[in-house]
Structures
1.
Amino acid sequence: MTNHQLPIWGADAGRWLKLDCRHYRGDRPCAAGVQGVCPSSCQDYTSIGYRIVIIKLAALGDVIRTAALLPGLKERWPTSQITWVTRPNGVRMLANHPLIDRLLPFDAETLCHLQHERFDLCLSLDKEPGPTALAMRIDARERCGIGLSSLGTPFPLNPECMDYFALGLDDQKKFFENTRSHQQLLYEAVGLEYAGQRYRLYPGDERREQARVFWSDSGVTDDDVVIGLNTGAGCIFANKNWPAERFVELAEMIEQRTDWRVALFGGPDERAGNARIAAACPAIVDTGCNHDELDFAALLQRCDVLVTGDTMAMHVAIATDVPCVVLFGPTCEQEIDLYGRGEKVQTSLSCAPCYARRCDKSPNCMDDISVERVWLAVERWAGRRSPKVGATKPVVEWAK
């Protein structure tokens, strides 16, 4: 990109605004500390470089794992500015990410100014009308991913995206033929090479300290092994949740066989269920069900193992290096990359995966997963996590 320079007439005639400088903000002083209008030979000038906009709203877990693209984009374009458009919960979850320059909520104000901006690359990674329509309205030299036709239907914007797009149209391919993880499919869809790039979250020092105080006040010491039980899994697909009585049985088994601590995790929808589990297991640590996104991540980082379904908490654990024991019923286990940090426990029922919205089978696919199988997986992974990730600093993986 060339420098966008604007002459200033009047008292400051002959001086320039360096609109493509990473430090220029316009509505307040320069981020590098330079006062006044940009000097003609500023030593702090740094080009924003290649401008990329990512449009990814969807479910929060999908937003988190899409962040695996960020190191790949920075490897391909080291000098670049990355803007990410998402829903408010995604803005909160991805806050502090060192590879994102601008996090914008999907709202009217954002739509107004994005349509006036110009980008080098637009990555559109949802199939819904709103985000795909935005991708078609943004001024970008190149678009990858999924767009919206004039008939109101989604379509792949580039040839490389065809496989990613087609999986949503063919159950046989999605459920039984595909062996690629979601991250690999994303990389291929936008024309990048996947080499196991990770996705990360960055709760920040203040939230980490608040989490440390919570665990200390709950009687959990630095030496304790903590097994987290995440009981929620959303309500879009049938039977993603393991039955509550199985979590109770697992918690009792852990308490009887070990000196490990057990902690409950969940969101607002799990409040009543978690209260019943906590009442049945008085020694359990209930972390609460009303945390914001990064507070949840900071608390979960303390776990040595998390038992969870295929849900947002699983992606938080993966993004914070917490080993997972993941229970798979109706969804595709092959699309989940645990990066060698955990174990998948799958149903043996032949009807899975199915992505069904309703199911009347009894026993269903999650009923089929026994407590003993989950316990054995937890036992294999407990104690392997060292040092505690909650005490480490963030890693910017693209910087080789």
2.
Amino acid sequence: MPPPVRERELKLAVAESFMLPDLTDDGLGVLEVRELPELDLRSTYHDTADLRLARSGVTLRYRTGDDSGPTWTLKLRVEGSDGTERDEHSFPGSPEEVPADARRLVAAIARREPLVPVASLHTRRQRWLLLADGEAPLAELADDEVSVLDRDRVLSRFRELELESRGPELKQLRPVADRLRRAGAVLAEPVPKAIRAMGPRADAQPDVTPLTARPGDPAADAVKAALAAGTLRLIENDPATRLGDEEGLHQMRVATRRLRSDLRTFAALLDQAWADGLSEELLWLGGLLGSVRDLDVQIAGLETRAADLAPALTPLFSRLRDRRDAARAELLAALESERYVDLLDRLVQAQRDPLVSPPAEMPATEVLPRLLEDPWRKLERRANALTPDDPDTSYHAVRIRAKRARYAAEAIAPAVNGSKRVETLAGRAADLQELLGRIQDAVVAEQEIVRVLGQVPRDAKFALAAGRLIERERGAIAEARAAFPDTWKRTRRLAAKVVEKH
């Protein structure tokens, strides 16, 4: 599947009487406005019957009339963007059937619902290329007259401008947009044409939305907020994971870990059989994601620490990449399974209506602080007992406790008094987790090096390089161990104030 193209554009609404102003005045950076051939575009948008894609800010269309010929286009939201940026994926195929690759990229949103035609648009597009000095393209300006169709019958019409970047950041195009506004255009919300055409239903809330629980709310609202955050992170990073993006995979794994941790944190407020069933399935998915993620981290770390030894370490990296590829193939197969879709459906339902026990209806400030005590006391016991002579497994056990305490603090922080201090405590736990993670990464790396040494035929260069790399991994372990007491002291000092106060 080819990589996506990042679309960056501003939309402006205009009346029928709007006339394009001169854009080559001083100050805009536009030296030439070159007219391009007019296009006659016909688009059919596909979605689920309840418009799950549109409600999530995603569009999938088959369009004819483009310069490049008929094509399927899927546009996905960019995390952190206000909608002015989207990742555009193109697929060949006939108009009768949605391409399989496109289906896969929206599978976490659509789940079992079929993708069907939901809107037809006819667009007459006038275009101009805005050029800077040296004929460098700045943007393409499109003036679209859009007709919303029911077969051959026109249901409605509207006109809009699209100012799409051909390189610069959108903020560099703001002066051009302002010139258009002074001529009568109105800067519009970055809403795709299809969503405008489909009406209010397409602008409704998606299946999963971020929630916020406040101190005066019932404790159940904190449960819903935590489950919504984890489910949303899982769904939003599904496409990137399928495309091989390492950060998307990492975030998807974090989602499974946090959801399991949240179910553990809120155990006293949940039906235990219900929570255990969800946790078991999250453990399955998290294990598959972790098998790939751990190898990604291992390869990246070794490449950094052994950059000068890389040629001699080819057998090691070759085996790690083979294992990573096999783990990724297993993961992708799981993402196509009914078991995965079942899990997504259960999570969507869980964040809407978790199966809670009576204490969950009590005010958050009365219930949630107690839920912080248990994970922090367990961390405290483990960390206080740790000595410099303890094995690496003991340090790893403390890391697991630090991660659980951190996630518990992050889950309850918004819904308790003194949330800033609880958030700071979660940050300290994250620092401790990261420090101890360096030990675990180095331990795993050394084990892998030793394993490969036993598999590779006698190779003096590889053996020498492997020995030097093992020394570096042990050095990293020693450095992290030495830093542990001070890091833990800072964390414990704050924890004593925050946990005792609550």
